[in-house]
Amino acid sequence: MILADTHVHIHSCFDLRLFFSSTISNFAAASREKNLSGDVQALLCLTETPGTHVFDVLLKEGEATGGACRSVMTGTFISRTDEEISLAVWTDQKVKIFLVAGRQIPTAEKVEVLALGTREDFPRDEAMDMTLKRVSERGAIPVLAWGPGKWTGTRKRRIRGLLDREDLPAFFLGDNGNRLALWPKPRLLTLGEVKGHQVLPGSDPLPFSSEAHRVARFGLVMDRELTSSCPAGEFLGFLGNEDVAWMSFGRLEKPLRFLHNQLFMHIRNRLS
Predict the structure, then answer these.
(1) pTM strictly above 0.90
(2) 23 part of a folded domain
(3) Does 144 reside within a domain?
(4) 160 belongs to a structural domain
(5) Which are the contacts of 272, defined by CB distance < 8 A and separation ≥ 6?
(6) What residues does 107 pair with on adjacent strands?
(7) Fewer CB within 10 Å: N-end or C-end of the chain?
(8) CB of 252 within 8 A of CB of 180?
(9) Tens-place pLDDT, residues 183-201
């Protein structure tokens, strides 16, 4: 079985030892929630923002020796795989987590597009449709990410139009662990599924130090097994296979926490 968080940020304010210990704890909780037995493989799909390259820093640490090397940043052991877009992270508890490289790209409409499975940078502030095309052309998985307050008004109409476009490459929609649990599922996510755009759930931790706990609290579980030394390519291939299904795990945000986060994000954006 595979557990994956498909929308992960490693913000500069995070304690990386706490980040990875929380990852282990939250994936273990997801395994219990879904009553999973046997071997469970865990992946974090990074969606790094412009100017952030934590994956590349960790990759360089992993290149320090021929085998696994102790990471000064994370307190874990990091080893390379047979591909340039993934790393294996081993903890002292002998738990292995695969990190998959990826980017988060701001668009002109102030909606984010995720590019899963790439270390490349992309132009920012282009139209959503152009960004989706660029991501696909470079061999990554494009995801149009839902965000609180971002799929409304004019943007809602434009996203609705994208769902019907036949000239666009296949793309996914991204659900978000910051969504308020009391809200119904956004209609555009449901409509997108009807039109063949599958939904990828991810935690999307916010840029506050306390959010390091939230990684792997919302994601997907897939009845598949990674058997190759290229785990990212294999996992992304499963996503692109119409015969492979998955379900979400985890819980959405409670009201007080949601309001707290949105208030502080508003203040942070105003000051930046």
Answers:
(1) yes
(2) yes
(3) no
(4) no
(5) none
(6) 126
(7) C
(8) yes
(9) 889 999 999 999 999 999 9
Q: 227: how many CB neighbours lie within 10 A of its CB?
A: 8
What's the per-residue H, E or C state across the chain?
Answer: CEEEEEEECCCCCCCHHHHHHHHHHHHHHHHHHCCCCCCCEEEEEECECCCCCHHHHHHHHHCCCCCCEECCCCCCEEEECCCCCEEEEECCCCCEEEEECEEEEEECCCCEEEEECCCCCCCCCECHHHHHHHHHHCCCEEEEECCCCCCCHHHHHHHHHHHCCCCCCCCEEEEECCCECCCCCCHHHHHHHHCCCCEEEECCCCCCHHHHHHCCCEEEEECCCCCCCCHHHHHHHHHCCCCCCEEEEECCECHHHHHHHHHHHHHHHHHC
Q: Domain total for the chain? A: 1
Q: Which domain holds residue 37?
A: 2-101+172-271
* Structure tokens given for 104: 């988060």
- 138 contacts 100 by C-beta, under 8 angstroms: no
> DSSP code of 37?
-
Quote the CA–CA distance of 113 and 164 in Å, as a whole number: 17
Q: Which residues pair with 42 in a beta bridge?
A: 3, 97
Residues 87-114, mean pLDDT to the nearest whole number? 92
